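Render this sequence as a predicted structure.
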Amino acid sequence: MSLEYAEFIHPGHLMFFIEAAQVFNCHILVRKTGRATISWIGRRGYTGKRADMKAKTANLDVGHYSTAGLVCSPLLRPEAFTANRLGDARKEWLKSCHLITVPPNGFDDDRQPIGCHTPYMLQTNPQHRHYGCVALVEMGLLVPRYVHGDYDLYALIPANQPFDPTKLSVRQSSLVSTMSPQGLSMNERARMPTMNLQHNHDSLPASLIPHGQTHTSVLNFEGPLSFQVANYINVRICNTSPDLLGALMVNHGEQVNIGAKGLTCEPVLAIMSRQRHGQSACILNTQEAHEEFYRNA
Protein backbone atom coordinates (compact mmCIF):
# COMPACT_ATOMS: atom_id res chain seq x y z
CA MET A 1 0.00 0.00 0.00
CA SER A 2 1.33 3.43 -0.94
CA LEU A 3 2.23 5.59 2.06
CA GLU A 4 0.18 8.37 0.46
CA TYR A 5 -2.93 6.18 0.61
CA ALA A 6 -2.55 6.04 4.41
CA GLU A 7 -3.72 9.66 4.54
CA PHE A 8 -7.13 8.48 3.29
CA ILE A 9 -7.78 4.90 4.48
CA HIS A 10 -6.38 2.65 7.19
CA PRO A 11 -4.04 0.07 5.59
CA GLY A 12 -6.14 -2.75 7.03
CA HIS A 13 -9.30 -1.40 5.38
CA LEU A 14 -8.15 -0.70 1.83
CA MET A 15 -8.97 -4.22 0.62
CA PHE A 16 -12.57 -3.79 1.80
CA PHE A 17 -12.94 -0.71 -0.39
CA ILE A 18 -11.38 -2.55 -3.33
CA GLU A 19 -13.79 -5.46 -2.85
CA ALA A 20 -16.78 -3.10 -2.68
CA ALA A 21 -15.70 -1.34 -5.89
CA GLN A 22 -15.50 -4.69 -7.65
CA VAL A 23 -18.76 -6.08 -6.25
CA PHE A 24 -20.80 -2.97 -7.18
CA ASN A 25 -18.82 -2.19 -10.35
CA CYS A 26 -18.10 1.38 -9.31
CA HIS A 27 -15.24 3.68 -8.39
CA ILE A 28 -15.16 4.84 -4.75
CA LEU A 29 -13.65 8.27 -4.13
CA VAL A 30 -12.66 8.91 -0.49
CA ARG A 31 -11.77 12.27 1.05
CA LYS A 32 -8.60 12.65 3.10
CA THR A 33 -9.10 11.24 6.60
CA GLY A 34 -5.72 12.24 8.03
CA ARG A 35 -3.02 10.25 9.77
CA ALA A 36 -4.03 11.48 13.21
CA THR A 37 -7.50 9.96 12.92
CA ILE A 38 -6.24 6.81 11.21
CA SER A 39 -3.76 6.23 14.04
CA TRP A 40 -6.68 5.56 16.42
CA ILE A 41 -8.70 3.27 14.13
CA GLY A 42 -9.02 -0.30 15.41
CA ARG A 43 -7.45 0.38 18.80
CA ARG A 44 -9.16 -0.89 21.93
CA GLY A 45 -11.09 1.88 23.69
CA TYR A 46 -11.65 3.96 20.53
CA THR A 47 -14.41 3.94 17.95
CA GLY A 48 -15.55 5.67 14.77
CA LYS A 49 -17.77 8.74 14.65
CA ARG A 50 -21.44 7.92 14.13
CA ALA A 51 -23.81 9.87 11.92
CA ASP A 52 -25.39 11.60 14.93
CA MET A 53 -22.06 13.13 15.98
CA LYS A 54 -21.26 16.19 13.87
CA ALA A 55 -18.60 17.67 16.16
CA LYS A 56 -15.14 17.98 14.62
CA THR A 57 -11.97 16.09 15.43
CA ALA A 58 -9.07 18.12 16.80
CA ASN A 59 -6.00 18.46 14.61
CA LEU A 60 -3.40 19.40 17.24
CA ASP A 61 -1.82 17.81 20.30
CA VAL A 62 -0.96 20.43 22.89
CA GLY A 63 1.43 19.74 25.75
CA HIS A 64 1.05 16.22 27.15
CA TYR A 65 -2.52 15.85 25.86
CA SER A 66 -3.47 13.52 22.98
CA THR A 67 -6.37 15.12 21.12
CA ALA A 68 -5.43 15.13 17.41
CA GLY A 69 -7.74 12.86 15.44
CA LEU A 70 -10.32 12.60 18.26
CA VAL A 71 -13.63 14.44 18.57
CA CYS A 72 -12.86 17.30 20.94
CA SER A 73 -14.72 20.24 22.48
CA PRO A 74 -13.62 23.52 20.88
CA LEU A 75 -15.13 25.31 23.87
CA LEU A 76 -13.05 23.44 26.45
CA ARG A 77 -9.94 22.95 24.29
CA PRO A 78 -9.83 25.65 21.57
CA GLU A 79 -6.04 25.33 21.41
CA ALA A 80 -6.46 21.80 19.95
CA PHE A 81 -7.74 23.34 16.70
CA THR A 82 -5.89 25.41 14.14
CA ALA A 83 -7.23 28.93 13.66
CA ASN A 84 -8.79 28.13 10.30
CA ARG A 85 -10.77 25.22 11.80
CA LEU A 86 -11.85 26.67 15.13
CA GLY A 87 -14.87 28.66 13.93
CA ASP A 88 -16.32 25.71 12.02
CA ALA A 89 -15.58 23.40 14.95
CA ARG A 90 -17.59 25.62 17.30
CA LYS A 91 -20.50 25.72 14.87
CA GLU A 92 -20.57 21.93 14.44
CA TRP A 93 -20.18 21.34 18.19
CA LEU A 94 -23.52 23.05 18.82
CA LYS A 95 -25.25 20.57 16.51
CA SER A 96 -24.27 17.63 18.72
CA CYS A 97 -23.70 19.01 22.22
CA HIS A 98 -27.20 18.00 23.36
CA LEU A 99 -26.08 14.37 22.96
CA ILE A 100 -23.07 14.83 25.24
CA THR A 101 -23.14 14.69 29.03
CA VAL A 102 -20.59 17.03 30.64
CA PRO A 103 -19.61 15.58 34.06
CA PRO A 104 -18.02 17.95 36.57
CA ASN A 105 -15.04 15.70 37.37
CA GLY A 106 -14.49 13.58 34.30
CA PHE A 107 -15.02 9.81 34.13
CA ASP A 108 -13.13 6.52 34.45
CA ASP A 109 -12.16 4.86 31.15
CA ASP A 110 -12.52 1.37 32.67
CA ARG A 111 -16.06 1.67 34.05
CA GLN A 112 -19.49 2.11 32.59
CA PRO A 113 -20.80 5.53 33.66
CA ILE A 114 -23.75 5.38 36.03
CA GLY A 115 -26.76 7.62 35.46
CA CYS A 116 -25.71 8.88 32.05
CA HIS A 117 -28.74 9.69 29.86
CA THR A 118 -26.93 10.55 26.64
CA PRO A 119 -24.94 8.51 24.11
CA TYR A 120 -21.73 10.48 24.71
CA MET A 121 -19.69 11.96 27.56
CA LEU A 122 -17.05 14.68 27.62
CA GLN A 123 -13.78 13.97 29.43
CA THR A 124 -13.48 16.93 31.81
CA ASN A 125 -10.62 15.64 33.97
CA PRO A 126 -7.67 18.00 33.24
CA GLN A 127 -5.23 15.25 34.27
CA HIS A 128 -6.47 12.86 31.59
CA ARG A 129 -4.48 12.54 28.34
CA HIS A 130 -7.75 12.95 26.38
CA TYR A 131 -8.95 15.98 28.34
CA GLY A 132 -11.70 17.66 26.30
CA CYS A 133 -12.40 14.63 24.10
CA VAL A 134 -15.72 12.86 23.57
CA ALA A 135 -16.39 9.19 24.34
CA LEU A 136 -19.26 6.96 23.23
CA VAL A 137 -21.02 5.39 26.24
CA GLU A 138 -24.53 4.60 24.91
CA MET A 139 -26.35 5.96 27.97
CA GLY A 140 -24.03 4.04 30.30
CA LEU A 141 -24.31 0.72 28.44
CA LEU A 142 -20.68 0.75 27.29
CA VAL A 143 -17.29 1.30 28.83
CA PRO A 144 -16.22 4.64 27.32
CA ARG A 145 -14.75 4.55 23.82
CA TYR A 146 -13.15 7.75 22.60
CA VAL A 147 -14.48 8.85 19.23
CA HIS A 148 -12.24 9.35 16.21
CA GLY A 149 -13.18 10.45 12.69
CA ASP A 150 -14.97 8.28 10.15
CA TYR A 151 -14.51 7.89 6.39
CA ASP A 152 -16.04 10.60 4.21
CA LEU A 153 -16.95 9.48 0.71
CA TYR A 154 -16.48 12.09 -2.00
CA ALA A 155 -18.26 10.26 -4.83
CA LEU A 156 -19.46 6.84 -5.98
CA ILE A 157 -19.06 6.62 -9.75
CA PRO A 158 -20.63 3.79 -11.80
CA ALA A 159 -17.94 2.18 -13.96
CA ASN A 160 -17.82 2.19 -17.77
CA GLN A 161 -19.74 5.41 -18.33
CA PRO A 162 -18.88 9.11 -18.21
CA PHE A 163 -19.66 10.78 -14.89
CA ASP A 164 -21.13 14.27 -14.56
CA PRO A 165 -21.13 15.40 -10.89
CA THR A 166 -23.58 18.21 -11.73
CA LYS A 167 -26.29 15.74 -12.84
CA LEU A 168 -26.88 13.29 -10.05
CA SER A 169 -29.88 11.28 -8.93
CA VAL A 170 -29.98 12.02 -5.20
CA ARG A 171 -32.41 11.09 -2.44
CA GLN A 172 -32.64 13.34 0.62
CA SER A 173 -33.11 11.67 3.99
CA SER A 174 -32.57 12.42 7.67
CA LEU A 175 -30.07 10.69 9.92
CA VAL A 176 -31.46 10.59 13.45
CA SER A 177 -29.47 9.63 16.52
CA THR A 178 -30.04 6.00 17.51
CA MET A 179 -29.77 7.09 21.12
CA SER A 180 -30.61 10.45 22.63
CA PRO A 181 -31.30 11.92 26.06
CA GLN A 182 -33.85 10.09 28.15
CA GLY A 183 -37.45 11.07 27.52
CA LEU A 184 -37.04 11.81 23.79
CA SER A 185 -38.83 9.15 21.75
CA MET A 186 -37.91 8.09 18.20
CA ASN A 187 -41.05 9.79 16.87
CA GLU A 188 -40.13 13.02 18.64
CA ARG A 189 -36.59 12.87 17.28
CA ALA A 190 -37.82 12.37 13.74
CA ARG A 191 -40.51 15.06 14.01
CA MET A 192 -38.52 17.78 15.76
CA PRO A 193 -35.28 18.91 14.08
CA THR A 194 -34.25 21.11 17.01
CA MET A 195 -34.51 20.69 20.76
CA ASN A 196 -33.29 22.35 23.92
CA LEU A 197 -32.08 19.72 26.38
CA GLN A 198 -30.90 20.16 29.96
CA HIS A 199 -27.64 18.69 31.25
CA ASN A 200 -26.04 18.73 34.66
CA HIS A 201 -23.95 21.88 34.13
CA ASP A 202 -24.26 23.39 37.59
CA SER A 203 -20.56 23.19 38.41
CA LEU A 204 -19.24 24.07 34.93
CA PRO A 205 -17.98 27.40 33.61
CA ALA A 206 -20.66 29.33 31.74
CA SER A 207 -18.54 29.22 28.57
CA LEU A 208 -19.00 25.43 28.35
CA ILE A 209 -22.77 25.42 28.63
CA PRO A 210 -24.53 25.21 25.23
CA HIS A 211 -27.22 27.77 24.53
CA GLY A 212 -29.91 28.02 21.86
CA GLN A 213 -31.30 25.33 19.61
CA THR A 214 -29.47 22.13 18.77
CA HIS A 215 -30.20 19.52 16.12
CA THR A 216 -31.34 15.94 16.71
CA SER A 217 -31.30 14.97 13.02
CA VAL A 218 -28.87 15.53 10.18
CA LEU A 219 -29.69 15.83 6.49
CA ASN A 220 -28.25 13.05 4.34
CA PHE A 221 -28.01 13.00 0.55
CA GLU A 222 -27.81 9.50 -0.90
CA GLY A 223 -26.96 8.38 -4.40
CA PRO A 224 -28.15 5.05 -5.88
CA LEU A 225 -25.14 3.12 -4.52
CA SER A 226 -24.73 4.89 -1.17
CA PHE A 227 -26.40 2.32 1.08
CA GLN A 228 -25.06 -0.79 -0.63
CA VAL A 229 -21.45 0.36 -0.67
CA ALA A 230 -21.52 1.75 2.89
CA ASN A 231 -23.17 -1.38 4.27
CA TYR A 232 -20.69 -3.70 2.54
CA ILE A 233 -17.64 -1.80 3.82
CA ASN A 234 -19.05 -1.38 7.34
CA VAL A 235 -19.82 -5.08 7.70
CA ARG A 236 -16.34 -6.06 6.53
CA ILE A 237 -14.69 -3.58 8.93
CA CYS A 238 -16.84 -4.63 11.89
CA ASN A 239 -15.93 -8.29 11.34
CA THR A 240 -12.29 -7.42 11.99
CA SER A 241 -12.63 -4.60 14.55
CA PRO A 242 -15.07 -5.42 17.39
CA ASP A 243 -14.66 -1.97 18.95
CA LEU A 244 -16.09 -0.38 15.83
CA LEU A 245 -19.44 -2.13 16.23
CA GLY A 246 -22.18 0.45 16.77
CA ALA A 247 -20.06 3.27 15.36
CA LEU A 248 -19.74 2.52 11.67
CA MET A 249 -16.93 3.98 9.61
CA VAL A 250 -19.04 5.01 6.56
CA ASN A 251 -22.10 6.86 7.80
CA HIS A 252 -23.56 9.14 5.15
CA GLY A 253 -23.85 9.92 1.46
CA GLU A 254 -21.18 11.31 -0.81
CA GLN A 255 -19.85 14.88 -0.71
CA VAL A 256 -20.83 15.61 -4.33
CA ASN A 257 -24.47 14.86 -3.53
CA ILE A 258 -24.93 18.15 -1.68
CA GLY A 259 -24.65 20.06 -4.96
CA ALA A 260 -22.30 22.83 -6.04
CA LYS A 261 -20.89 23.19 -2.51
CA GLY A 262 -19.68 19.60 -2.69
CA LEU A 263 -17.71 20.06 -5.92
CA THR A 264 -14.47 21.05 -4.23
CA CYS A 265 -12.11 18.98 -6.39
CA GLU A 266 -10.04 18.36 -3.27
CA PRO A 267 -7.46 15.54 -3.15
CA VAL A 268 -9.26 12.20 -3.01
CA LEU A 269 -8.27 8.55 -3.17
CA ALA A 270 -10.03 6.81 -6.06
CA ILE A 271 -10.49 3.08 -5.54
CA MET A 272 -11.29 1.61 -8.96
CA SER A 273 -13.59 -1.21 -10.03
CA ARG A 274 -10.73 -2.76 -12.02
CA GLN A 275 -7.00 -2.26 -12.06
CA ARG A 276 -5.46 0.39 -14.28
CA HIS A 277 -1.77 0.20 -15.07
CA GLY A 278 -1.49 -2.50 -12.41
CA GLN A 279 -3.00 -0.31 -9.67
CA SER A 280 -6.34 -0.62 -7.87
CA ALA A 281 -6.28 2.97 -6.57
CA CYS A 282 -4.87 6.38 -7.41
CA ILE A 283 -4.90 9.85 -5.89
CA LEU A 284 -6.68 12.68 -7.72
CA ASN A 285 -4.90 15.85 -6.59
CA THR A 286 -6.18 18.50 -9.03
CA GLN A 287 -9.33 19.60 -10.81
CA GLU A 288 -7.82 18.39 -14.08
CA ALA A 289 -7.22 14.95 -12.57
CA HIS A 290 -10.82 14.83 -11.34
CA GLU A 291 -12.23 15.79 -14.72
CA GLU A 292 -10.06 13.31 -16.64
CA PHE A 293 -11.09 10.52 -14.26
CA TYR A 294 -14.77 11.37 -14.72
CA ARG A 295 -14.46 11.33 -18.53
CA ASN A 296 -12.85 7.89 -18.49
CA ALA A 297 -14.84 6.31 -15.68
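Summary. The first strand starts at residue 26 and ends at 31. The chain has two domains: 1-33+151-165+217-297, 38-149+181-215.
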